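Appendix B, example 12.
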Amino acid sequence: MSSEYQNYYVPHQSYWPIVGAFALFLIAVGAGSTVQQIGTATSWGSYMLYAGIVTLLFMLVGWFKNVIDESMSGLYSAQMDRSFRQGMSWFIFSEVMFFAAFFGALFYARMVAVPWLGGAGNNEMTSQILWPNFEAVWPLVMTPDGSTTEAMPWQGLPLYNTIILVISSITLHIAHVNLEQGKRKALTIWLAITVLLGAAFLVLQVEEYIHAYREMGLTLASGVYGNTFFLLTGFHGLHVTLGGIMLFILLLRVIKGHFTPENHFGFQAGSWYWHFVDVVWLLLFVFVYIL
C-alpha cells in the first residue's frame, strides 16, 4: 500500500453542521414569512431572515477557520485531498440539480402549461374560463386579477451583469494561472478584481429588483412569470453571494501567504464554484431574459 493512503485525518466532532442547518431553517421560514407579510404591518419574518443570514455567516467563518487551521497544520494527506475533490464535485452536482428543478419549472410553465391553458391541441379550455383577454404567450405578464406587468428586458442591467460575470471568470482564471506560476502579486491583484466584480454584480441586481418593483410592477405576486423570474434570479444571487464570500476568504488567505503552486485545492474549489455560478447565469440570461 502506498504511503499516501496510510494516514487519513478524522476531525473531532463539530457543531458547525447543526448551526448551518439551523441557519438555513431560519432563512427558509423567514424568507417565506417575509414574502407573505409584504404590505402588512408585521415584520417578524424579516427579523428571522436577518437572524438566519447572520447565523449562516457566523457558521461559514467558524467552519472555514477550522478547515484552514487543519490544512495549514499539515493534517491533510493526498487521500484527504482526493476526498475533498470528490466532495466538492458532488456538492456542485447537487447545485446543478437544484437549478435544474427551477429551470424545469420554467420550461414546463412556458412550453406545456401556458399552451394547454390556451386550448392547445385537443384541450377545450378557453380564455373565458380563465380571465378576460387571456393570451397563451410567454412571458405571461397578465395576472388573474386583470393587472398587467412588464417583462424584464435583457438590455440594460441584465446585460451589464452578464458582462461583469463573464469578465470575473476570466480574471479568476488569470489569478489561478498566476498561482500555478508562483506570481503572488499578480495573483492577489486579479483575485481582488474578481471579488470586486462579484460585489458589483450583486449591487446591480439589487438595483434591478428595485426597478422591477417600483417602476415595472413586476413582483413575486405577478403570476407564474414573476414567480419564476424572482426564484431563478434570486437563488442565483444567493449563490453569487456565497461564491463571493468564498473568494473573499481566499483573497485573505492569499494575502497571508497561503497556497502554493503544488498545493492549492482550496483555491481551486472556490474557482470551480464561481465558474459554475457564471454558467448558471448565462443560462438564466438566455432562457429567462432573452427567449
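The radius of gyration is 23 Å. The chain has two domains: 1-76, 77-290.
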